[in-house]
């Protein structure tokens, strides 16, 4: 009797991710950390490149004005573009390494990367460690640094106006010293100096100076060689000079304070715009870095030969 051996056949079984779905975590903190590192690295690279280009364009030996008027605008544009590129890269890396296939998951990975980068940047600015992340962070830091400072602190022209007022008051005191006779009693001279100080304080405070003025005119006429008319004219001149310099200082302070308020408003607007655009840049990077279904199947397909 003939024994027929069974024929051995070989075939392939292809297992794909769609046949045996495995639940994956919705968020990958390792991927987000990698995206944060990538964002900071790209930011620093772009800043170094921008610094090299900027220094190469400056030639103080041949140019009367080494830094052109558009240099600041170019710096801001470059730093903003660097920040957007770094956030886009961070979002892309986070989404790609997380293996996110869903568009919302990919966008959220970019969003979380953006949030951590921003929080870290603001922390570095607040702690003074701006050497790690300059760029837009320095712009924000300079804008926020205006808060809590007076107009005198940030505007030299205000300081000059205030110094002029002080110089005017000192000039009045020096002029009084030249009018006082050397042989006059010390008490009389002291009382006259006190009367002048009271007059200056009243003028600066905006108070009524009629009574103080009349008493000072009388004291000047009695204790100096000035006549009553000359003393009256001299005191009126002092009052007018102090009022003039004070009005100029107040006008300058008011104008500069308005400029500071506008600067703070513009800075806040720039910060808001950077945050919004940066958010969408990081989210767009996450969407671009998303692994589509076809790519996921190709990279997660395994072929087995079964005898």
Structural write-up:
- The chain has 307 residues and is mainly α.
- The protein folds into 2 domains: 26-57 and 69-150 and 263-301, no CATH class; 152-257, no CATH class.
- It has 10 helices and 2 strands; from the N terminus they run E-H-H-H-H-H-H-H-H-H-H-E.
- The protein has a two-stranded antiparallel sheet with strand order 1-2.
- It starts with 10 loop residues before the first strand and ends with a strand.
- The relative contact order is 0.15.
Give a short synopsis of this structure.
The protein is mainly α.
> How large is the radius of gyration?
38 Å
Strand order of the largest sheet: 1-2
Helix-strand string: EHHHHHHHHHHE
Distance between the termini: 28 Å
Total number of helices: 10
Helix content percent band: over 70%
Q: What class would the helix/strand composition place it in?
A: mainly alpha
Please outline the helices and strands.
Layout: E1 11-15, H1 29-57, H2 71-98, H3 103-127, H4 136-145, H5 151-154, H6 156-179, H7 186-205, H8 210-223, H9 228-288, H10 293-299, E2 302-306
Antiparallel strand pairs: 1-2
């Amino acid at each position: 009797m003939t024994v027929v051996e069974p024929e051995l056949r070989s075939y392939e079984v292809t297992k794909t991710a769609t046949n045996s779905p495995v639940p994956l975590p919705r968020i990958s903190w390792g991927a987000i950390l990698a995206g944060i590192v990538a964002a900071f690295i790209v930011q620093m690279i772009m800043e170094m490149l921008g610094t090299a280009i900027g220094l190469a364009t400056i030639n103080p030996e041949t140019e009367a004005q080494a830094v052109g008027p558009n240099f600041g605008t170019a710096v801001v544009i470059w730093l903003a573009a660097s920040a957007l590129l770094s956030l886009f890269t961070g979002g892309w890396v986070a989404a790609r390494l997380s293996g996110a296939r869903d568009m919302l998951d990919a966008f959220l990975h970019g969003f979380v990367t953006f949030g951590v980068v921003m929080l870290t940047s603001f922390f570095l600015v607040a702690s003074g460690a701006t050497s790690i992340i300059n760029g837009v962070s320095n712009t924000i830091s300079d804008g926020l640094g205006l808060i809590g400072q007076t107009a005198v602190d940030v505007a030299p022209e205000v300081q000059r106006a205030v110094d002029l007022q002080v110089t005017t008051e000192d000039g009045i005191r020096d002029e009084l010293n030249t009018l006082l006779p050397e042989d006059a009693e010390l008490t009389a001279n002291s009382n006259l100096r006190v009367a002048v100080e009271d007059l200056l304080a009243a003028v600066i405070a905006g108070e009524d100076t009629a009574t103080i003025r009349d008493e000072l005119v009388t004291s000047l006429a009695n204790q100096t060689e000035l006549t009553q008319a000359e003393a009256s004219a001299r005191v009126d001149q002092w009052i007018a000079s102090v009022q003039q310099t004070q009005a100029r200082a107040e006008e300058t302070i008011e104008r500069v304070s308005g400029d500071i308020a506008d600067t703070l408003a513009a800075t806040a607007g720039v910060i808001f715009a950077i945050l919004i655009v940066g958010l969408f840049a990081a989210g767009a990077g996450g969407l671009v870095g998303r692994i589509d279904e076809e790519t996921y199947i190709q990279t997660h397909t395994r072929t087995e030969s079964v005898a």
